[in-house]
Amino acid sequence: MTAVVVGGGGGIGGACARVLAERHGPVLCVDRDLDAATRTASEVGGVALAADAGTADFGSVVGAAARELGPVGCAVYAVAYEEHTPAVELSRESLLRSLTVGPVGAFEFFRALTPAAGASYVAIGSLHETQPFANCLGYNAAHGALGQVVRTLAHEWADRGIRVNAVVPGWIATPGEEVFHGAGQLAAAGKLLPFGRHGRPEEIAAAVAFLASEAAGYISGSSLTVDGALSTSLARLRGV
């Protein structure tokens, strides 16, 4: 069987590609950054593909490349678009980009695949699905919609034997996060998290691998939160 990872050039997507390469056949690593996809593909003996989830032909391009490798046993969607800006300043283009790259791209990707028997499709979600973080309206809305995509596809495709789930990470230390926040600020923030550290991409990949395994054969339409208790600690009031 084949595994397909969209966002395979990123921290979480790359970790997913590496763990799935151990259990599935060839891995198709998809990323809009061909160099990043190629680096991951070379590590796992897979195939790299450049494709942008924000384009209209994204699903058909990835689906065609996946069919050349064979039926898909596991598919992972690990990309999103995030802009931090107050809602009153958010542009229509930014909001649409979040929705297109997020739930629309995930749906078109999953729909375009040729699944193997018992296929597992996993979207990498976010705590933003249920937590309305300030200055993230587009990202919040996109992940709310992504959750409904996961649950609806799980409902409609159950009779086809396709399982559709989400893995919801907490704050994960990835190269992208280090670029965004800076190494020093990121390290300091990690000490304030419930576990005293950020999560690791490999911990998210382990959850994806579990959902792709026979042990999760009756799990579909679910969200597996892997956040080191972050979501349960958000109720704390400042200074209390």
Automatic annotation (TrEMBL):
Domain of life (superkingdom): Bacteria
Xref: Pfam families: adh_short_C2
Gene Ontology molecular function: oxidoreductase activity, acting on the CH-OH group of donors, NAD or NADP as acceptor
Recorded family membership: Belongs to the short-chain dehydrogenases/reductases (SDR) family.
PANTHER family assigned to the protein according to its UniProt record, in alphabetical order: SHORT-CHAIN DEHYDROGENASES/REDUCTASES FAMILY MEMBER
UniProt protein name: NAD(P)-dependent dehydrogenase (Short-subunit alcohol dehydrogenase family)
